[in-house]
Amino acid sequence: MNRLLILSVACLLAVSATAQQALGMRPNVKSPVVNNDGSVTFNFYDPTAQEVSVTGDFEEIHWKTLPMTKQENGVWTVTTKTLNPELYSYSFSVDGQRIVDPANSYVNRDISTLSNFLIVTKSDSDKGHLYQVNDVPHGTLARVWYDSPTLGQQRRMTIYLPAAYDGKKRFPVMYLLHGHGGDETAWGDLGRTSQIMDNLIAEGKCVPMIVVMPNGNPTCNAAPGWWHEGLYTPDGNAFNERGAKASMEESFMDIVNFVDRHYKTIRKRSARAVTGLSMGGGHTFNIARLYPETFDYYGLQSAAARMNHHGDKLDSEMARLFASKPKLYWIAIGKEDFLFQMNSDLRRYLDAHKYPYEYYENDGGHIWRNWRIYLTLFAQKIFK
After folding, report:
1. 108-133 confidence digits (pLDDT tens)
2. What residue spans define the domains of the chain?
3. Which pLDDT score is estimated for 25?
4. What is the pLDDT of residues 168-187, one digit of tens each?
5. Rounded CA gap, 374 and 377, in Å?
6. Thinking of the domain 27-128, which architecture would CATH place it in?
């Protein structure tokens, strides 16, 4: 009996030692590694894989795929060219299967797609520095439920309060709207709103303000997984077949009224701005027409501004809007954006009627890289 026990223990120790030895032989993979020159090295361990690559927004316009090379220790690796300061998203492909980088804990969701991200920065004046968390006073980012009588729902939104918010002083409010497939988390997670606002305010480049990021889908109460419909797969069109009691724009004053009741806001037109990307830019276009004397600043970012949907009312509504003399009507879009022509048509309409507006055009398409830039620019133009 003792011999059997001794033999069993010896076998277990041998197996354990072998397992620990194998564990010790596994490379300590670090990925991504941002190099001193601004290039980035990606590493992935899988000695059995046949083909591995990384795909990321490393180009100004298009996503780029880089094949990775297998090393003798089973680590696949590749190093990019020198990258400009920026926030970059990426994922791996392993034998045709898209996966996130297991060595990188930082992941964002864009509709139903998960991607890792990294930040390249070279100085305290570049975009990478603006998008990262710096040693400055930090605002508060909160998920808030509010009642929408117009839609007959309890709904969720994200609210940024600047570091100076103390419940006594009143602040102006920027309403920041997401695009199709997004939700109340999009601008905070993908748009880096709190980091951008913290850094701009700390540098004295914009006025301290409250930023309200609502859910723009009137058939959904909140982001996927955060309301009673449970853990459904996001697809950008969830529950649209149900219809809604009203449109996002028609219900928008429910949001404004809630914010004015529950926060220390400056309750007048000169202290309210609304801006949004894509679908949210379309919402901004319509909110401007419906409530021409409620907001003084409008920002259309890659806007889905469909003028032909409004018939004969468009001319009278736009005339009323510009007769009220808003302080800013701002249009921003990338030259490769698929909505570029729609925005050009809007500009021609404004020019033909001699309505004043400001225009910003840059490279790139319908991408978060541009929308972070537009938020940065717009925030510095308002409430001055």
Report:
1. 999 999 999 999 999 999 999 999 99
2. 27-128, 133-379
3. 61
4. 999 999 999 999 999 999 99
5. 5
6. Sandwich (2.60)
Structure tokens at 85: 């300061």
**pLDDT tens digits along 228-253:** 999 998 988 888 888 899 999 999 99
Domain 133-379 has CATH 3.30.360.10: no
